[in-house]
Design goal:
This protein folds into 2 domains: 34-205 and 407-420, Rossmann fold (3-Layer(aba) Sandwich), CATH 3.40.50.11720; 217-404, Glycogen Phosphorylase B (Rossmann fold). By secondary structure, it is an alpha/beta fold. Helix content is 47%, strand content 14%. The protein is globular, with a radius of gyration of 22 Å.
Amino acid sequence: MARVLYTFVYALLLPVFVARLWWRGRVNPGYRKRLGERFGRLPHRPRANGLWIHAVSVGETLAAAPLVKNFRQRYPDVPVMVTTTTPTGSEQVQRLFGASVFHMYLPYDLPVFWRRFLRRLNPGLLVVMETELWPNLLAACEQHNIPVMLANARLSEKSARGYEKFQALTGPMLQRLSLVAVQNAVDGQRFIDLGLPQERLEVTGSVKFDMQIPAGIHDSGQLLRRQWGEQRPVLALASGHAGEDEMLLDLLPQLQQSCPELLLLLIPRHPERFDVVANAVRSRGLKLQRRSTGTASTETQVYVADCMGEMLLLLAAADLVLVGGSLVPSGGHNPIEPAALGKATLIGPHYFNFAAIVDKLESKGALAKVSDQPARLQEQLQALLAADDQRREMGQHGQQVVEENRGAVGRLTELCAGYLKI
């Protein structure tokens, strides 16, 4: 009954969802393209019994990348389909995999669209990255005998409380999952408390630890440093959200009093913020360089990375990395990338999306938590910018933690092969 009510309300709101896509298309035209896919019309018809992976946006696509690559290496003849919901996720799929996988947008969560979509796609397994559950999608997969695995799953205490409020929807969804492969046992217990059968839970670890550092990335980072001024300290804000870039810009004059040559590298999370962040720099009278128009010089105070797909390269050129989404209540972003690059890594108090990973890195001396209060944050940044040895040790510990926790991708690949019977 709860799903019937959900479907009725969702159908009534569908025009609003479409209008929202069109509205967001003012800034990112990709939202207005390929609308037919969101109504279940597929641009491709892969062979049946393939692996279907759903990754919402950029972060989930990056998390899925090691699994996709490992699976394709071991089973090159099995088609792989990747769905996303955002244009930036779509662009990331194209950038990472090119024509080696089929990409489509995920349809709206209504039964009529799923019938059309699944009849044409006919996958052997759906792997949902992290925690993107849709009631009608799971019901349609059950009707078509398609197993569903929730992979690299995480469930924060806050999210668990949210799901608990809608137990009439949450319970049946969890019952329809064939397997939940969680990052850690604590999150796994939250799924069980919400109604997941114990036997459908497996702790596999986080696939983010299996990230591969591209060959030559450190050399490329050093090349950037020489262009910026090789001896200049570089503080990076990775995947910054509204309010965070502005906070660091306001602190920059004070930071430069104790660290005069400091370069602030801002890497906004969303392309819609590129111009906003650049304008915020200008409004403060700081010397700006946008990556899209050239590289920073020794005179640049703030370098805005208005680009996509260059996170690792840019972080390789930094000395100190503050993970975005953590100074504001957004839940934080992945701290493993800077740690794997051997960078001293900082995160604010709002990191519930990556709590277990943050605690693991912090316990090994690879990460430090910082305040979201400007005065205290300023003190912490100044102390670390002056502590070369401490930053170096943090980076070394980070690389060690990443190496010790690899292996989740191999376990997930084996699980996928088992469901696909290959």
